[in-house]
Write a structure and sequence with these properties.
Blueprint: H1 14-28, E1 34-38, H2 45-55, E2 61-67, H3 73-91, H4 100-107, H5 112-126, H6 130-148, E3 151-157, H7 170-180, E4 184-190, H8 193-203, E5 211-215, H9 221-232, E6 236-237, H10 239-248, H11 253-269, E7 274-275, H12 277-289, H13 294-306, H14 312-323, H15 329-336, H16 340-352, E8 356-359, E9 362-365, H17 368-383, H18 391-412, H19 415-425, E10 429-433, E11 436-440, E12 444-452, E13 458-465, E14 470-476, H20 482-494, E15 501-506, H21 512-520, E16 524-526, H22 528-537
Parallel strand pairs: 1-4, 1-5, 2-3, 3-4, 6-7, 14-15, 15-16
Antiparallel strand pairs: 8-9, 10-11, 12-13, 13-14
Helix pairs in contact: 3-4, 3-5, 3-6, 5-6, 9-10, 9-11, 11-12, 12-13, 12-18, 14-17, 15-16, 20-21
Bound molecules: adenosine-5'-diphosphate and magnesium ion (MG).
Length: about 550
């Protein structure tokens, strides 16, 4: 049993990796499509970029990777020039150096124009002439490409921080270069998608410099399971516990890694060959409940950063209410005994910080585990009266055990029961699921039934009375084929009254023909991702196939 090697445990993200690689290869072939990778903090943008670069090490392109988070212009300048020269020397099998002057000396005979420019940049920076230096840095890839015939891929991680360099028109200048330097591919990443989209659309959106944005989400259920398997590498663990962990961590690779690491340590301590429930609860307690547990500490720092400044108390109370399941402004204001106009700006600012997300008029803490921690650890700490040693810990342990049991109970429920439970929660909301808007009315008379088609097949189904008419939801765990769909459509047409709205819930998707047909007939299709999106919105555990 080995500890996790955090340098080499990258998992999944295949489709995004493929796109990035395709864009890099495209550049070599004269087709350039810049990319913006957007997603919450710690979701895996940097890890993904590093993985892409290491997998493309042998390609004939030069990567310049700069993480700009909390960096100043001096760092940008030195790191930019050093990276370019270092990578050049490495690729050419020339002696490597770390110091800029030595790098210049080593590369001078091979790429004199590039080195000349690097020295000029260093001089300008030394004299405090940042604007001139910045312009020159941006022209460096061009000069290098002219001199070597090689393409450059510039990666700016947390690129929004360029703004902090105090350089006038920092993005406009970058935008100009992006437009004219066709041999340079720009990949930018940001943990603040809204801010990034604004910069991209308002400041960098020059005609030929458009960016393709790729959103990076938490892992879906099967990816999360895959990462757990990879991390535990042969250590036995029951499927139920694995599923629970995937759901509990909300698909965040970082939390999965840290939990697995703790599990490995504990199973060593207790000399266990297999991981059982008590070890899982102990691991959760160690990393999430204990004050110095790594995830607990991480969340505490997040809270501190979010609540710096005035009205910190309100921000904390707001996060608490959101974690307690108050999702609408009206519910939040009732719970906090404040008027909506006092609440809205604070919620908006949490949204700007990318902590809270909005769907319809529902607000949610994005990170499931953070929300859990606020509810069961942080708020408890704030409100504890009885300081009897060990009392809170005992209570937390009981809660984790209950969550584990509940997860098992819910997972054993039939899909039809889960969907009907979910439908009971609808309250005339309008949500966007995977890019499509759905209006979900409040239902009464929700009934589970069997739908028998002409060919003798049975489907689980749910009928429910919406405000304007009857809804029919047909469920299938396996893929829905063309003939299934035809049978279902025939039965729907026979129903009296005809349903106002029909929905196909399919955990394994529809085949292409069935999908086209369903759309023609104006059926809604909810697949696993859309369902789990709804489950998340209504604070329900995800659906396990
Ligand atoms: N695909 C992945 N496979 C394994 N671990 C990952 C993956 N993505 C992220 N991680 C873990 O999460 C941590 C934080 O990811 P990072 O890339 O730094 O996030 P971001 O750049 O989005 O803030 C990484 O250090 C790594 O431990
Ligand atoms: Mg990062």
């Amino acid at each position: 049993m080995n500890l996790i090697d955090f340098d080499y445990n990258f998992y999944g993200r295949r489709s995004v990796l493929e796109i990035l690689k395709k864009r890099v290869m495209g550049l070599k072939e004269g087709y350039r499509q810049n990319v913006a990778l957007l997603g919450s903090r710690y979701i895996g943008k940097t890890a993904l970029l590093h993985c892409m670069m290491s997998q493309m090490e042998d390609e004939d392109v030069f990567f310049i990777y700069l993480d700009l988070e909390n960096r100043d212009f001096d760092y940008f300048s030195v790191q930019f020039t050093k990276s370019l020269l270092y990578n050049y020397l490495k690729k050419e099998n020339l002696p490597l150096q770390e110091d800029l002057k030595l790098l210049c000396a080593e590369a001078k005979d091979h790429i004199p124009r590039t080195v000349f420019l690097v020295q000029a940049i260093e001089n300008f920076t030394g004299q405090g002439k940042m604007l001139e230096a910045y312009h020159m840095i941006l022209s460096l890839p061009e000069v290098f490409t002219q001199e070597t015939g090689k393409s450059v891929v510039l990666i700016f991680d947390e690129f929004g921080h360029l703004e902090n360099f105090n350089i006038p028109e920092v993005f406009a200048e970058l935008g100009k270069r992006i437009m004219t330097q066709k041999n340079c591919l720009y990949i930018v990443a940001s943990s603040f998608p809204q801010q990034a989209e604004t910069i991209l659309s308002e400041k960098l959106s020059l005609l030929f410099g458009n960016f393709e944005t790729i959103p990076l989400q938490p892992f879906n259920f099967s990816e999360a399971q895959g990462l757990i398997d990879q991390n535990l590498d042969g250590v036995k663990i029951g499927l139920h516990l694995k599923n629970f962990m995937a759901d509990f961590a909300g698909g965040h690779p970082l939390y999965i890694n840290l939990l697995c690491q703790e599990l490995i340590c504990l199973s060593g301590v207790y000399a266990q060959q297999e991981i059982y429930a008590p070890i899982v609860t102990q691991a959760i307690e160690n990393v999430i409940f204990n004050r110095w547990g790594v995830i607990s500490r991480h969340f505490e720092l997040e809270i501190n950063a979010l609540t710096a400044g005035k009205s910190a108390g309100l921000a904390v109370a707001l996060l608490g209410a959101l974690a307690q399941g108050k999702h609408k402004i009206s519910d939040l204001s009732e719970s906090l005994k404040l008027k909506s106009p006092q609440i809205s700006p604070r919620v908006n600012s949490l949204q700007d910080s990318n902590i809270v997300e909005r769907n319809g008029n529902y607000y949610h803490i994005k990170d499931k585990l953070f929300s859990y921690w606020i509810k069961y650890v942080y708020q408890r700490r704030l409100h504890v009266i009885d300081l009897e040693a060990g009392r809170s810990r005992k209570q937390f342990k009981e809660e984790i055990n209950r969550a584990l049991n509940d997860f098992g109970v819910v997972a054993r429920k039939d899909l039809s029961v889960r969907i009907s439970d979910l439908m009971h929660k609808f309250d005339n909301e309008s949500f966007v699921l995977c890019g499509r808007r759905y209006k979900l009315t409040a239902f009464r008379d929700i009934k589970i039934l069997k739908l028998r088609t002409g060919t003798g097949n049975y489907f689980d189904a749910i009928s429910a009375q919406g405000q304007e008419g009857l809804w029919l939801v047909v469920l299938k765990k396996d893929p829905v084929h063309d003939n299934d769909l035809n049978g279902i459509l025939e039965e729907i047409k026979k129903l009296d009254p005809r349903p106002l709205r029909s929905v196909i819930v399919s955990l394994s998707g529809l085949d292409e023909n069935a999908k086209v047909r369903a759309l023609q007939e104006k059926l809604w299709i909810w697949d696993e991702d859309q369902l789990n999106c709804l489950m998340h919105l209504f604070d329900e555990p995800i659906i396990v196939r």
